[in-house]
Amino acid sequence: MTVTFIGGGNMASALIGALLRRGAVASHFSVVDPVAEQRARQSARFPGIRVYAEAVAEAFAQSDLVVLAVKPQQMRDAARAMATRLASAPIVLTIAAGIRLADLGRWLGGYNRLVRAMPNTPALIGKGISGAYALPGVDAAGRALAAQVLEAGGELVWVTDEAMLDAVTGVSGSGPAYVFYFIEALEQAARELGFAAADARKLAFATFSGALALAQSSDAEPATLRAQVTSKGGTTERALATLEGDAVKTRIIAAVKAAAVRARELGDAFGVDD
Question: Rounded to two decimals, what is the model's pTM?
Answer without folding.
Answer: 0.89
